[in-house]
């Protein structure tokens, strides 16, 4: 079955209903229902162990749900079955385990920004001798580096640049197929405060380029102003779903994370402090 065109496909990017996923003997997602429209910018918040990583693997079709009969729906862009290569043309994924693998490889093999971005065409990390890069792909990589303001890193080893610049190149790798949506899993993990601020500007740039953002995190400081819908996830279930202003309150977040928290808001940004 061919992938849906962007002009005729379902209005829903993600359309899950009554999805349960078991890993080993443990139920990780429990009768979960979630709909996210194309063009929405959404944050999914939850503590460690809430099922966020399993949800990402379900979206990327790395794992599949239990078949619970006619009530279950497990669609991306209105389609049940996907070839993974076709899916990459619609969804760009920057997952936490990918960040860790890339960090190891760029240190080991001295991968440049150009090589990392181009490797997204081949589902590798960095380029290998047998991978022939076409002029069109080179042109796409240069365009992405300009958009992300990392053209100066094209031929520099990413092991020698800042963590924030590395993160931009990793996003560039996810953009090579010009996906309509980016799914970002804990994207500011291990970044210092300055790099987090720079990274937020990159995300804002992506929304201006028309990319749908789905941000999966436990850190509300990651949320940019363009994100207006927040989903709370805990113990494998959706705990709450609504406007950002309604959910990002001290009582709601304290309940979600299981400790007393205070919300600090300034210039459209949010952060949490204990107590």
Question: What are the main properties of this structure?
Answer:
three-stranded antiparallel β-sheet; 32% helix; six-stranded mixed β-sheet; 275 residues; 11 strands; 9 helices
Helical content class: 25-40%
- What is the radius of gyration computed over CA atoms, rounded to a whole number of angstroms? 19 Å
How many helix segments? 9
Number of strands: 11
Low-confidence stretches: none
Order of helices and strands: EEEHEHEHHHHEHEEEHHEE
Mean pLDDT: 89
Strand order of the largest sheet: 5-6-7-3-8-9
Distance between the termini: 53 Å
Name the shape in a single word: globular
Beta-strand percent range:
25-35%
Structural class: alpha/beta
Largest sheet descriptor: 6 strands, mixed
Q: Which SSEs are present, and which pair or pack?
A:
Elements: E1 12-23, E2 26-37, E3 41-45, H1 52-59, E4 73-76, H2 84-88, E5 91-94, H3 96-109, H4 113-119, H5 135-147, H6 163-174, E6 181-185, H7 193-208, E7 212-217, E8 229-234, E9 237-243, H8 244-247, H9 250-257, E10 261-266, E11 269-274
Parallel strand pairs: 3-7, 3-8, 5-6, 6-7
Antiparallel strand pairs: 1-2, 1-4, 8-9, 10-11
Helix pairs in contact: 4-5, 4-6, 6-7
Describe the model.
This protein is an alpha/beta fold. 32% of the residues lie in helices and 27% in strands. The protein has nine helices and eleven strands. The strands form three sheets. Strands 5-6-7-3-8-9 form a six-stranded mixed β-sheet, sandwiched between helices. Strands 2-1-4 form a three-stranded antiparallel β-sheet, covered by helices on one side. It has a two-stranded antiparallel ribbon with strand order 10-11. It is globular. The model has no long low-confidence stretch (mean pLDDT 89).
